[in-house]
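A sample copied in:

***
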Amino acid sequence: MPAPAEDALAEFVSVMRRLRAECPWKQEQTHRSLARYLLEETHETLEAIDSGDVQHLREELGDLLLQVVFHAVIAEQAGEFDLDDVARDITDKMRRRNPHVYGPDAGAEGVSHDAASVTEVWESVKAQEKQRDQVTDGLPPGLPALLYADKVIDRLERAGDASLVSRLASLAPQPAELGDRLLALVAEARADGVDPEQALRDAVRRLL
């Protein structure tokens, strides 16, 4: 019989603590030195999702979990936080941002929720927590350009930018700059409910 998930995770954390203590390479690592591996494993996980191979995905999720636990063990040894702190923080966040499940009116008769309304509530709670002043606050500048554009447009829409649609529509016709046309295509993808980053990846895969 497989070990319970919590036992398996505790065992993995124990392994990483020992490796951190006894493996020379792992002793030398820092949050910064591990950043490249976190990025690589994230992209490999995305590739596994695209492949549809569940065993591949299982393996890559393990590699991604390794990065999370490794960072947590480094922080634990520095007396900053540990994996339990990380888990508690994300658990609290999920409860705050999902009041339709954990709020006082959760499950109340006659109260219905769909994906769109849930997303609106999530973003509203998030905005209250973050208290952002600028549209780009909290957006990593290193995001892929299509994803960055998608998120900026989303935030402008949520901020009630009345002229956004007309401005984006004006970018599409020739002889607009290539960047303008790409931005207009991102807006078109959003209007159609399509993830532009995933759509481009799928199109590239069809070439192979």
Notes: The radius of gyration is 21 Å.
